[in-house]
Structures are given as structure tokens and as C-alpha cells.
What does this fold into?
Amino acid sequence: MSRAQYDVMRRIVEEVTGIIFNDGDMEFMVRRLKPLALRFGCKDFDEFSSKARRGTTVVRNSLVDAVTTRETLWFRDRYFESLIGGHLLPTLAEEAIGAGRSKLKIWSAASSSGQEAYSIAMLLAEAQNKGTLGTLRMENCLIHGTDISLAALESARKGCYDGVAMARGLPPALKARYFDRVDGGFQVKERLRRLTRFDRLNLLQMDQRRGNYDMILLRNVLIYFTKEARTKILDRMAIKLRPGGVLVVGGSEDPLRYSSLWTRERMPSGTGAYFKAKV
Ligand SMILES: C[S@@+](CC[C@H](N)C(=O)[O-])C[C@H]1O[C@@H](n2cnc3c(N)ncnc32)[C@H](O)[C@@H]1O
It folds into this structure.
């Protein structure tokens, strides 16, 4: 791949996904796109980029799957369990009950292969067992996962994970309680899978209608975008929460750097930050 071909290709990738490839990422892009160019019978990257630009659905979808980094794991951040399971879910449940609502609606935006959504489902089940959801039933809750990658959505919907994926951050007790052994690995139990729905969404094409989510998880995805794209997504997300709803981001991420529509909150212990919308 020449530098000129790289520039054309990374412009196309940014238009389609919002993902930025920096000057030093050419080797990485070649590794990701070479097999794809061969698969579509292209003799070089010029041919592949014009094919990608013309954009049949199959080429575009494969391009998205090839350039997205879908790295994910169970729970993932240090405060995830105490922040979400110990504090946010009980608080949101109490608020919902007080307002006469009987369910929580949670959005895992950029859900990858589903570990984030199913981590929330396990925390809901654990909270219900401990009685910290009050009268709210987890069966009424929805965990809505969205992602731009069809490959990610397909594996999220199956909820099946091999031994390597299972070993990444999942406590053995939760593995025993919430997974069935299946061919080639483990599958999330049906009663948790039933709480979830996975749909395709490009965060850069999010509509501007008001939403009614109680909690949004936007973790480890903004890092791939330009500053402008981060601002656009965070600004639009602010109206997707119902009043009192909360945004949870990745351990080292700070939405206040990109959008003025959020305020930072902390757990009573002073650890584990989350965010509320001003609008
Ligand atoms: C590193 S994973 C993060 C998964 C999970 N949120 C976590 O923290 O473990 C990033 C995900 O963002 C998705 N993604 C990248 N660009 C996107 C876009 N424009 N719209 C929606 N999802 C996108 C990728 O397909 C990938 O699954």
C-alpha cells in the first residue's frame, strides 16, 4: 500500500465508521485490509478502494468488520461491579418504582460481542437475588446492545463464548450460575439472553429523537473517533436518557472534555464516576 492509497483508504474508513487511522497506522490497516482485498478479487488497493467507495453493502459491511477493534471482556473496569451492581441499579430501580415505572431500559452502545450487555444482565440478576431492586423484576428490564459491526452483533446475539473469552474477567461463581456448557464453549443462560436485544447502529448516525434509557454505557469506543465526532455523539446521547438517567464510560474516559452537556457524579464512597445529562 502506498501512502497515497493509505490516505484514500483511511478517508473512506472515516466516512463509513468515524474511525480514525493515524499516520503511523498504515501497517495495521494493511494487515486488516489485505485479506479483504484478496477476497473481493482486487489486484491492488486502488481497485479495492474504488470498490469500497462505490460501496455495495457486502463490501461496506466487510470493511466495517475488518477495521473495527472489537476487543472486550466481562465487567472490564475496576468499579464496574460496585458502581453499577452496588449503586446505580438499586438507585435507578428505586427511582423507577417511585415514579410508577416497572422496568429499567439500559443501552450498551458499542456492545461488541455482548460481554458488556451480559455483564449488566448478570448484575441485574445478582441485585434481584440480593433484593436490592425492590419490587422491580429483572424480567421486565431491557438491555439494548448496538454496534456498527455485523460480526459483533451476530456473536452478541448468540451469547456463546470460547474458553479464552470466558477467562477474561468473569468470576467463576458467575460462570457457574449464568452459563450453560455448549459445543465449543459456554452460552449465556436463556433467562439472561431474553433481557437483551442487539441492533445495528452507527453512533455517528444516531437520530436526534428523545430517548428514555435509564442507563447508557458508552465505553471504549470514542477513543477511535475525532474530537468533533466525540462531541457530536456525546451531545446527541444527552437526550437519549430519561431525566435522572446515567451515563457510564470507560475507566479512563472523560466526557466532560468533549461535551458541555454532562455533569460528573460519584458513588457515595467517592470512587466510581458516572455522568448525568444537563438537558
Ligand atoms: C473496543 S470495543 C468496546 C466494546 C465494549 N463497549 C467494551 O468496553 O468492552 C469497540 C466497539 O465499537 C464498535 N464501533 C466502532 N465504530 C462504531 C460506530 N461508528 N458506531 C457504533 N459502534 C462502533 C466496534 O465495532 C466495537 O465493537
Remarks:
- The first strand starts at residue 105 and ends at 109.
- Residues 220 and 250 are 6 Å apart (CA to CA).
